[in-house]
């Protein structure tokens, strides 16, 4: 079915943004969450684009495919006839595309690459790289196919929380510095999209002290810069600790005996110590949940996957995101 003929099903109401930016401290699983969100948003005949911009090829590794080129490629099907496509944005290729689009320098641009001028330009002006990356994301988000958008939603696997504010804000800085011309116009268009209701920045965290603190800091920075923050997504979460008193050594011993297992003193003492450690850990997690709740943002918890994030695990995370309140 051609893009123009696809049914105009709306995205799930709990994920209303057209561009979903996913960030998080390194190690929190933001790439897995971004992929699961792209699957969730592609359900029931929709089409989404999953984009990465850091050159890590994390999406290809996650799905066990060949490295992604600078071209939109079919990645996987989604329930109900939907489709997820993927793109790894390369700053050099994006600059060539930009030069051809605005300055008609197709062959000349390729010659510049051979001379090393493009690499030189992005090295002496590091912000230019992020301008090119976000510009390509904006183009994919707003592109039309016939009478409707080419993609129902775009999901960006963005840089980590320590760099997300600078990454998203670079286009506004460029628009402020550039006086006239295509660079100023392009930068203003990207900056406007990133601060509009069409965009939501979601922050992925774990129930651990450092990721939670980085989440709190990132939300404050994004809010100060004027970016719309969407959800805080707690990855690999365990259910809150049940209310009630701790299990006693006597109860552990009775339980071991009932199961036909050894119930000697050392075994019971080891289990009791493990139970105490787990209770302390879970109490800390509950406290961190409270810290996140104080942000006043929608909070979504994704289950811990004991077997790791394989295709079945991605599907489970995707279903959890669809069910998010």
TrEMBL record:
**Signal sequence, start to end:** none
Which residues are in the ArsA/GET3 Anion-transporting ATPase-like domain?
21-176
Q: Name one GO molecular function term.
A: ATP hydrolysis activity
* Domain of life where this protein originates: Bacteria
Pfam families given in the database record: ArsA_ATPase
The name of this protein is ATPase
Q: Which organism is it from?
A: Micromonospora haikouensis
């Amino acid at each position: 079915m051609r893009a123009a003929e696809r049914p105009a099903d709306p995205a799930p109401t709990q994920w209303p943004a057209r561009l979903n930016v996913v960030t998080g401290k390194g190690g929190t699983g933001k790439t897995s969450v971004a992929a699961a969100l792209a699957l969730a948003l592609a359900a029931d005949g929709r089409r989404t684009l999953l984009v990465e911009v850091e050159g890590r090829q994390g999406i290809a590794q996650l799905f066990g495919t060949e490295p992604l080129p600078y071209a939109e490629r079919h990645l996987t099907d989604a329930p109900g006839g939907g489709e997820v496509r993927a793109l790894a944005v390369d700053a050099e290729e994006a600059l060539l595309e930009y030069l051809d689009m605005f300055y008609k320098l197709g062959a000349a641009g390729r010659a510049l690459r051979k001379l090393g001028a493009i690499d030189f330009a992005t090295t002496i002006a590091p912000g230019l790289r992020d301008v090119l990356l976000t510009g390509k994301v904006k183009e994919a988000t707003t592109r039309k196919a016939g009478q409707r958008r080419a993609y129902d939603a775009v999901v960006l696997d963005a840089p980590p929380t320590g760099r997300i504010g600078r990454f998203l804000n670079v286009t506004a800085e460029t628009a402020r510095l550039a006086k006239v011309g295509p660079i100023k116009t392009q930068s203003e268009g990207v900056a406007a999209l990133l601060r509009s209701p069409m965009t939501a920045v979601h922050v992925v965290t774990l129930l651990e002290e450092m990721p939670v603190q980085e989440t709190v800091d990132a939300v404050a920075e994004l809010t100060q810069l004027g970016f719309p923050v969407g959800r805080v997504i707690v990855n690999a979460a365990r259910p809150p600790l049940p209310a009630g008193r701790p299990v006693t050594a006597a109860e552990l011993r009775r339980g071991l005996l009932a199961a036909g297992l050894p119930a000697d003193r050392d075994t019971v003492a080891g289990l009791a110590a493990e139970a105490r450690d787990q209770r302390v850990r879970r109490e800390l997690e509950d406290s961190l949940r409270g810290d996140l709740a104080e942000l006043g943002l929608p909070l979504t918890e994704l289950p811990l996957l004991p077997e790791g994030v394989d295709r079945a695990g991605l599907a489970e995370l995707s279903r959890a995101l669809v069910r998010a309140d």
